Amino acid sequence: MVVPGAKQRAAHGTAPQRPISLPAWPVASVLALYPLWWALGLGVLIFPIMAVPMLVLLLRRRAAGRPLRLPPGFGWWALFLAAVVISIAALGADPAGTVVEHASDRLVAVLYRLCMYASLTILLVYTGNLTEEELPRRRLAKLLGWLFVVTVAGGLLGMVAGRFEFTSPVEWLLPGGIRSKGFVQSLVHPYAAQIMDLVGGEKPRPAAPWGYTNTWGNNFCLLMGWLVVAAWATRRTRDKVLAVLCLAVAIVPAVVSLNRGLWIGIGVVVCYVAARYVLMGRLWIIGAVVLAAAGLVLALLATPLGDVVDARLDNGKSNGVRSFLIDRAMDGFVDSPVVGYGSTRNTIGGRNSIAVGESSECERCGNFTVGGNGQLWQLMYAHGTVGTVAYLTFFGFGLWRFRRDRTPIGIAGSAAIVSSFAAMLWYNAIPTPLAFMFLAYALLWRNHIEGDAHAR
Questions:
Q1: Which residues are listed as membrane-spanning (predicted)?
Q2: N or C: which end of the chain has fewer CB within 10 A?
Q3: Least confident span in 170-184, 214-228, 318-332, 353-367
Q4: Average pLDDT in the 238-266 region?
């Protein structure tokens, strides 16, 4: 068969151009090697680092004449990014009851979040433009399932070696005055757990490799479904057995984390998935859920894990702080409802007294962060109505658009986004939870484009 135009190109001495493909390594290396990035001190910094080659490769493909796809509802996300930028104009405002600072003092945190939003947007677009030949959806699901295994392993490490930490290579390279800052430490200093006093006495709460216990719990919920998808996509019984064992073992660090938001999130994911399967006529899921719930109850009654749950439910020390910060966030939203204040703010003192605060010995003592106790409150306080509506509408639109996707990838992806809606009441999303939300969105999007033949 003669390709039209081939003779003319040959006559002019030019060979037909090969379509420019996108390599999978920028995405695959971030996910597969995340424990290494964490140990090196790169951790979440790997997202903006890898966003650079992703952007270059996307621009090269666009320059070659191959159009780039944008995810459904992307206009809402673009509106959110615009709201984030516009709200910076209010950075110099000092709402009542917050620490007075110059706008430049708040700029570092703002630029960090803006960089992460931009980097993760590139991740979403890049992953969505990969084809089945370049990065199969099953492989991406396996990579996300692998990160759930990493999360469980990090949780176990936090349990048995809660005070384990070390100075990373990146941390060694930083000047002492910079690496001693609490914010910088959270980025480059690997540690296994956060040590907190929630139930009487200091206890380690798993955090590795995600930096914070709350982020660990959020990612636990976002990633757990992908382990099941990856295991059941194969015909090997061994993989299925190992996945079930991993989920069973995961109960231990999940309970020991004392993370009530995680417990609720697991319930949300399980109930959502069960509801989807019931609507598909697969009533066996009810028996599976009842059996799993019975096993969980038995484990709590027969082991010390039950005492841990009782102790946490009897000690709601964080309830008052959360209520205090939600009230402050709502007050700020009422005072600046359109564009917000551009970022979070630190309260003057604590909820019971203003006579506590930061010092050279303790940078964050007494000063709570308004907008730091949940993505929803941060959106409302920092970016107002415009940013909040745009953010929620983008993910809500995705859930609605892909609601008919009944493949395992479709159900796991939508379950991850549903769990994020619940988690935003107590967890912040920057950066890794939002990354996993975007990757779930990209898988739903690619399922819609490429069909479900390879997604089952």
A1: 36-58, 70-90, 110-131, 143-164, 216-234, 241-256, 262-279, 284-305, 380-402, 409-427
A2: N
A3: 353-367
A4: 94
pTM for the model: 0.90
- Tell me the per-residue pLDDT of 64-121, one tens digit each, with 9 for 90 and over: 888 889 999 999 999 999 999 999 999 999 898 888 888 888 898 999 999 999 999 9
Beta-bridge partners for 204:
195
Give the pLDDT of residue 440. Answer: 97
Instruction: Give the Cα separation of 382 and 109 in Å (integer).
Output: 12
Nearest Cα residue to 170 out of 194, 193, 190: 190
- Can you give 139-193 as a three-state secondary structure string? HHHHHHHHHHHHHHHHHHHHHHCCCCECCCHHHHHCCHHHHCCHHHHHHHCCECE
How far is Cα of residue 454 from the mean position of the Cα atoms in its chain? 26
Inter-axis angle of helices 375-401 and 408-423, nearest 10: 160
- How far apart are the C-alpha atoms of 319 and 313, rounded to whole Å? 11
Place of tokens 């009654």: 301
Specify the pLDDT at position 349: 62
Question: Residue 180 contacts by C-beta under 8 Å, 6 or more apart in sequence?
Answer: none
Phi first, then psi: give them for residue 205, nearest 5 degrees: -120, 120
Closest CA to 432 of 192, 28, 116: 116
pLDDT, residue 364, reads 47
Dihedral sign for Cα 302, 304, 305, 310, please: positive
Beta bridge partners of 93: none
